[in-house]
Specification:
alpha/beta
Length: 192
């Protein structure tokens, strides 16, 4: 059974991207995965700084997030777009978890061999699409196999109903297919 960690790059109250990754997480569970849905806002971390790590070690919340990455096979990530890239919150969490927390630890151990599906949701017509290219590049550079498909949902202010579900059936199907693709690929890669 694939173990999937699902989170967004937003800690905003009523975040569109947190709602979106919730939809994807439910679809991944229905596809047979064991899913852990988290909010990065529950893992406050200082901006990554090598001097801070050397002097004080890893912040507790950074270690907790990294441990979750190590315990899961795949990632579902919904990323808001900040000035055509992904959010500083998401980048900082990725940066902390990329660092070795033990002298004997292999480089990028929290990411190597993982799979990911990426998506975004934004108020503009492009739905955060521009930021997904940067996120894909970053994840691939640290050893994550990002599934070929991705999804960006525009006009986020009217995309969800009062229960946090996507109103448009085609958008819902696309997110469901993306989650199912991640589960299928992750299962194949995890099988001996």
């Amino acid at each position: 059974m694939a173990r999937i960690l699902a989170f967004s790059g937003s800690s905003r109250k009523d975040s569109y991207n947190q709602k979106l990754v919730g939809v994807a997480a439910k679809a991944a569970e229905q596809a047979g995965a064991q899913v852990t849905l988290i909010n990065l806002g529950d893992f406050p971390m200082p901006i990554y700084n090598q001097d801070l790590q050397n002097e004080q070690g890893f912040p507790t919340s950074a270690l907790a997030f990294k441990q979750l990455l190590l315990e899961h096979d795949g990632l579902l990530i919904a990323s808001p777009e900040y000035n055509s890239a992904f959010s500083p919150l998401l980048k900082n969490a990725i940066d902390w978890a990329s660092r070795a927390s033990d002298p004997n630890e292999a480089p990028l151990s929290a990411y190597r061999g993982k799979t990911a599906a990426i998506m975004s949701c934004a108020p503009g017509a492009l739905g955060g699409l521009r930021g997904l290219g940067f996120l894909r590049m970053l994840l691939q550079n640290i050893g994550v196999m990002v599934v070929p498909n991705q999804r960006a949902i525009g006009l986020a202010g009217s995309a969800f109903d009062e229960h946090g579900q996507l109103k448009d059936a085609e958008q819902h199907k696309a997110i469901t297919r993306l989650a199912e693709e991640l589960v299928k690929i992750t299962d194949k890669l995890a099988s001996p």
